[in-house]
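Write out the 3D structure for:
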Amino acid sequence: MPHATSHADVAPADLDSALRGGPFHVALRAAIAARGLPLQRVQHHLSRHGVKVGVTSLSYWQQGARRPQRPESLRAVRALEEILRLPEESLIRLLASSEEHPAEQRSAARSYRSLVEATGVLERLMAELGCPPDAGLDTLGHHERIRVGGRRELAERESHHIVRARRDGVDRFVAVHHGDPGAVPERMAVHALDNCRTGRVRQDGATGVLVAELLFDTRLRTGETFLFRYGVEDGTAGVSREYVRGFGPPGGQYALQVRFDAPALPVRCHRFAQQSAAAPRTGHQELALSGRHRSVHLVEPRVRSGFVGIGWDWE
């Protein structure tokens, strides 16, 4: 089923690269994903080591939204090295390095995709909706429009899909929205705009993830194409710095447009790609902000497994 999260496995080479080069949150996220441990299990292992850390704190650490600093937190990091079977001092070293180079630290605004892969939150929400792993749809085209508001927040996004049924009887799509760190999915709103209506909606407040069932007005036959459009009102988190879209199997065309409200324009924008959650970002390209529409965009004629996104700097 097409959705925002790619479930690519973390290769040993990716984990080794993350442990060598950091930053800390990327290495931690890659190590947890490589071991396949939900955060609840990580928390359980920590408690057996005599260290108490909440699941929310672990989430923030691997998002880059917060860093372990208190003595108890540093004890937890050392325990994590043992629990995740990492070289001794590998995570502690990255923490120390980030303190020496604070300018390199940046909010991992859209890293919830990797968080969800590690914690199984998305799978749980999908299961609550009774959604099978294969929804029977291929994406031929997907155009997303993101609006960043005057408070520099991710205000809303709109998605226009062109899909084709792989089997008879397909009549729905499950949309996934990942808020920036601090997002409150209970305050978000889903709007069915064209050729669909909103069904059941599920949220996870700890990770800022919302999934929504979009019901078609027809049952598709094998090979039949369908167009639909929906939007998500967000605006519940703090400063947004990037938007990332993940893909599992290769697919059709993808276009991403990011528009900024006039009171808050970034000083620069760029596109990037990433083969997996733990791999380094590549393909950086500066994007010029158009004066009239105050927007930037990227187009992938045919998407490949991995991630593509647009990032921006405020100052």
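DSSP finds eight helices and 13 strands in the chain.
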